[in-house]
Task: structure prediction
Amino acid sequence: MYEGPVQDLIDELGRLPGIGPKSAQRIAFHLLRVPAEDARRLARVIVEARERISWCRRCFNLAAGDLCRICLDQRRDATTLCVVEDPRDVVAFERTGEMRALYHVLQGAISPIEGIGPEQLRVRELLQRIPEEGVREVILATNPNIEGEATALYLVKLLKPLGVKVTRLASGLPVGGDLEYADEVTLGRALEGRREVDAG
Result:
């Protein structure tokens, strides 16, 4: 155990995802060695991001205002929605330069083990957008893992009766992988080769 404030810093850093005890300790000592102004700037940026960034009221992506920059882009194809699990997936698709559709961020995937059901996701809002915005195609771009596949199958059953075309990304993405780690070429090919999903 270290002196109170040092241990508090290590404990807080250790609560971040992907940061174990040793990494938390290493980051804490790094922050204690940098000039005070650098540490204050980091603290300011964290507080400012927490206070100024919220969820886009339309697609639930990260936004600095009421709507995110993608929803504000008039050049987007508003008849197509790309459904993703996380805002990081939006960034992954945007890097490809292939996506012209709007997005809908579920903010997770169905995972009974973690106690996440459809009611914890932005499913209801997705279903409302279909008739309100005249959506004709929904691209299901959930992660190619068990939770992502379960979420996609659940959404197909809800979307098909609405009369929209429902497509899924093509192969090329590794099963069990996360979209945010896919390279631009693989993601672009998966997008181009998406296929229609059958409800049966």
Q: What stands out?
A: The two ends are 58 Å apart (CA to CA). The helical segments are 4-14, 21-33, 36-52, 69-72, 87-96, 123-133, 146-159, 184-192. The mean pLDDT is 90.
